[in-house]
Amino acid sequence: MSRVVVQAFLTLDGVAQGPGGPEEDLDGGFEHAGWQADYDAEFGSAENDDIVAEWETRTEALLLGRRTYEIFAGSWGVWDEDQGGLDGELTRRYNRVPKYVASRTLTELTWQNSHLLGDDVPAAVRKLRAEPGGEIRVWGSTRLIRTLAEHDLVDEYRLVVYPIVLGSGKKLFSDGFPLSRFTLGETRALASGVVITTYRRPVED
Prior knowledge:
Elements: E1 3-11, H1 35-43, H2 46-56, E2 59-65, H3 66-73, H4 85-96, E3 99-102, E4 114-116, H5 121-130, E5 135-139, H6 142-150, E6 156-162, E7 183-189, E8 195-200
Parallel strand pairs: 1-5, 1-6, 2-3, 2-5, 3-4
Antiparallel strand pairs: 6-8, 7-8
Helix pairs in contact: 2-4
């Protein structure tokens, strides 16, 4: 059985929108895109990078919403695999693993090893989750994550929380998010002030 693992960079007020770059996600007039990258540039990200690199060695597939897929396809999907460091490592891995995309509008996917999930996303994910394998990684994709939670399809949350309050932006756990219960896995405070916490599905008796 595979496991659906959500990884997210969050602010103290729960904002998950546009952490990586100034043009990443400007929906709703969002004015703080790139907040995570700016923080890492100021306070250091080496420790965080090491943790993410270790996590991503377990990634056997990506599960993405349309917008996140397009961002990833336009970055990891075209970047040089021979570059050094974490970027090269993730580019090689993301190019090779299957990508499963939830979208009502896309009809064709150009990034290698990419597949549309079809009209019944919960059923498709349930089938993927039932197959042998490792971690099915979800990045970004807040609407998709909510759909997964509504159908009890999230096995683990890995939350990287930055000591920043933005006051606006899309939240991972927005109003009306379905009731979900998880147990604490690990928590770790980094020298930069970032706190990483893992929550897992309770073990069934």
